[in-house]
Design goal:
about 475 residues; alpha+beta; 5-stranded antiparallel sheet; 5-stranded mixed sheet
Length: about 475
């Protein structure tokens, strides 16, 4: 080594004079695994008299290993020797950065290749053309595409989308690129084999320094989810159609069910009251009474079911007018008076004398109060009290509250009590007759009025039901 610059000390830890005296120092610094390539490069350069360019690991004087890059230009001297004028660079930082980048890219590639979709970068250039600098293989293998085929020709890739989705995809990219807003597109991709797969693409656009628009995105295969969604929609539609058919059928059965029941009730009432003369044996009178009472109960049950079906079918129409709530409440109270007397339950009205008129359908409102009063009396023991009061609620509404001192309702069952066919629990169902439709019908009728029905209760102490009517 006829000449070594002083800078070698900062890099290797050796004085330049030491290396010039001992020519074996440099070759010995090369890490053993890299020596064959190091030596082969020297021989190739000497044989061909072409520049030598080598990069490898060398061990410094203090034992640390650093990456070194050598650029050397050979020339033959007059005596036949070969002289290399060389530049040695410390490439450690650059090499470490490259290795870190390679590791990061390998890790990203490992993640993206195992996704049920593909990661991509889409670039729209200044001339309007499009390219895909990067596309992972996850989704492509599944649908039989090639990143170097279809994606090398973006128009060919876009043409694989279903004709009904093709223009939507174009429009989605145009809108996203214009406003720099996220792209969220879902459409059908037709693979070369003819298979249709649903693809959801999510991408974030950004403007590059040269004015081009780049999207970094992820395309996922959502075929299984779409198939499940469609199956769910079809099942729901079928259920809704079946439910509508059921409701319409029951609503249409009103005449067929009520007419014979009314006949049974009418004739049994004539016989019970012996309008055309005495029947004879006293047992017959009891039987007739039972027939009449059972018919009334059956008619009430069927009426509840039919009313609920009409409401669900959207065929229960209200005739709203300005009404005095007190008159409707009093009519309902007179209807349940005999039943309350038999059960020894006091029913009283605490309504103010100057109640404002409300927007009501008289028949529907009376049914609401009948249902609520019947329920309260049914679940209140002898000696209990059922009271009806009223207060001004929200602006434009009147709250009428019916309270009882009955058995109350457990808190965990309040939420489902106004649903069809629900009662407090199985034991009460056995002790108290009814379909469980009274509260449900009342709640739906209040909603048809534009009002509400709310329930508050404490088990063992009683229940308060508040209906809110809009003022006339």
């Amino acid at each position: 080594y006829p000449y070594v610059s002083p800078g070698v000390k900062a890099m290797y830890g050796y004085e330049a004079e030491e290396i010039m005296r001992d020519g074996s120092i440099f070759p010995r610094r090369v890490v053993e695994e890299d020596r064959p390539v190091y030596q082969a490069e020297i021989e190739r350069s000497a044989r061909t008299m072409t520049p030598r360019n080598w990069e490898g690991r060398e061990r410094m004087r203090d034992g640390t290993i650093r990456w070194v890059q050598i650029f050397a230009q050979p020339r033959r001297l007059d005596n036949g020797d070969i002289l290399w004028d060389s530049l040695l660079l410390d490439a450690t930082d650059r090499r470490n950065a490259e290795l870190a980048l390679e590791e990061s890219e390998a890790r990203l590639r490992s993640i993206t290749e195992n996704l049920p979709g593909n990661v991509y970068r889409r670039v729209r250039h200044e001339d309007g053309s499009v390219s895909y600098p990067y596309v992972s293989w996850g989704l492509l293998d599944k649908v039989g595409l090639d990143a170097k085929g279809e994606f090398a020709d973006p128009e060919k890739y876009l043409s694989l989308f279903h004709p009904e989705d093709f223009e939507r995809l174009r429009a989605a990219y145009l809108c996203s690129g214009r406003d720099l807003t996220p792209l969220d597109f879902e459409g059908r991709l037709i693979s070369p084999s003819g298979e249709v797969r649903w693809v959801n693409s999510l991408a974030l656009p950004r403007r590059l320094p040269n004015g081009e628009i780049a999207w970094d995105g992820l395309s996922l295969d959502v075929t299984e989810r779409k198939v499940a969604e469609e199956a769910t929609i079809q099942a729901r539609e079928a259920a809704e159609q079946a439910n509508a058919a059921k409701s319409i059928f029951l609503a249409n059965m009103s005449h067929e069910l009520r007419t014979p029941l009314n006949a049974i009730l009418g004739f049994s009432e004539v016989m019970r009251d012996e309008i055309h003369g005495p029947i004879g044996a006293p047992e017959y009178a009891e039987y007739i009474r039972l027939i009449h009472d059972s018919g009334r109960h059956l008619l009430a049950v069927i009426s509840d079911i039919l009313d609920m079906s009409k409401i669900e079918a959207g065929r229960y129409l209200l005739c709203l007018e300005a009404c005095d709530p007190a008159e409707i409440v009093e009519a309902a109270m007179s209807y349940v008076a005999s039943n309350a007397g038999e059960r020894k339950v006091e029913v009283r009205s605490d309504l103010p004398a100057d109640l404002p008129r409300c927007s009501m359908d008289k028949r529907a409102a009376r049914q609401v109060f009948l249902n609520l009063l019947s329920n309260a009396i049914k679940f209140t023991n002898a000696g209990g009290v059922v009271a009806i009061g009223a207060t001004t609620g929200e602006p434009g509404f009147l709250d009428i509250t019916l309270t009882d001192t009955g058995i109350g309702i457990p808190q965990d069952q309040l939420s489902r009590l106004a649903e069809p066919f629900q009662q407090v629990d199985a034991s009460l169902t056995r002790r108290h007759e009814g379909t469980g439709l009274g509260l449900a019908i009342s709640k739906r009728l209040m909603e048809l009025h534009g009002g509400t029905l709310g329930i508050a209760s404490e088990e063992g102490l009683g229940t308060a039901v508040t209906v809110r009517f809009p003022l006339a």
